[in-house]
């Protein structure tokens, strides 16, 4: 290689190094501008669990409960694990099947995707709170008399949704009942018997 060629190669190498160093500096400056604090501290490890806690307080089936729970605790987890009210079932755990349905302030909600924090100060009703003085609620009685279940896994959710519907609409048509229960799936496809049970419960509650 001639002296002239060697000089051109050295200049090209210096230019590449300068470009890379300049690009790295610009990237660092942009990152610091977009993410405040990155110049002074490392970003948190995304794999570390969120250990923040809060106090939740709610009335469940007429009884006041107060507890300190992780902020990520769902209402279903709080009911099942903290209060041991396991009548509320976890099916899909993603707001699709309705097995976890409970009543919060008169509305049927999926407890698997509702945070316990969101229910703070609320009145919560679960399947365990329907029967009074060892007497079944008319909806529960109707589901038994009309075989409104097979495996029973979805039944508590079906019953809680029915409770909200009949509180709002005491005398529904079959089409109205089907629409109200559309968010509650039955793995066993016992829909005919579920509908019979719901209509029977409507009649029993109006008698």
Structural features, described:
The protein has six helices and five strands. It folds into two domains: 51-129, Ubiquitin-like (UB roll); 130-207, DNA polymerase, domain 1 (Orthogonal Bundle), CATH 1.10.150.120. A hairpin with a 2-residue loop joins strand 3 (101-104) and strand 4 (107-110). A five-stranded mixed β-sheet has the order 2-1-5-3-4, with helices on both faces. It has helices spanning 3-34, 75-82, 138-145, 155-168, 174-180, 191-206, and strands at residues 53-60, 63-70, 101-104, 107-110, 123-125. Helix 3 (138-145) crosses helix 6. 41% of the residues lie in helices and 13% in strands. It has 207 residues and is α+β, with helices and mostly antiparallel strands. The relative contact order is 0.11.
- How much is the average pLDDT? 85
CATH level 3 topology of the largest domain: Ubiquitin-like (UB roll)
Number of domains: 2
Q: CATH-wise, what's the superfamily of the largest domain?
A: Beta-grasp domain
CATH class of the largest domain, anyone? Alpha Beta
Widest β-sheet, arrangement of strands: 2-1-5-3-4
Helical fraction: 40-55%
Order of helices and strands: HEEHEEEHHHH
Count of DSSP helices?
6
In the predicted model, the low-confidence regions spanning at least 5 consecutive residues are 26-44
User: How would you name the oligomeric state of the polypeptide chains in this document?
Assistant: single chain
What structural class do you assign from the helix and strand content? alpha+beta
Radius of gyration: 29 Å
The largest sheet, given as strand count, sense and whether it forms a barrel, is:
5 strands, mixed
What share of the residues does DSSP label as strand, in percent? 5-15%
- Gap from first CA to last CA: 106 Å
CATH architecture of the largest domain: Roll
Shape: elongated
